[in-house]
SRPBCC domain-containing protein (Fictibacillus norfolkensis), 149 residues
Amino acid sequence: MPEINHKTYIKVPLEDVYRTISTAQGWNAWFTDDTSLEINPDGTGEIRMRWLNFGSENVTIEDGGEILEAIPNQKFVFQWSPGEQSSTVTIKLEPYKDGTLVDLNESGYSNSEKDLSACIGCAAGWGEALTLLKVYLEHGIVYKQDLIL
């Protein structure tokens, strides 16, 4: 089954990127409306994401699952279920030039119609999300509810 792969360069330190992707406050600043996130001392935990009045249909979406691995300033891995079964999102961080190279991979989709549809949607969605993360971290600009703040 296909995997989703995206990379982007963000001109901020690793620590800033990691803090943004490993805290509820960080996710809510640039991507979600009401994320809860808990990381245990062993680097595992749970993430629950919520988007309110999302998209043209103004629906509330909730998703999330286990945090499989949280290694400060290196990697954040979690599961969620945008399709028929859980998929795994791995976000790796590497120092690059004057900032951070963010490498996102999502895997675990089946060949079912629902999973294929979710995979296509997430492939486009993660590209947009990484752009939003970059603009937020580099310029402090967020896009929510059709407003630029």
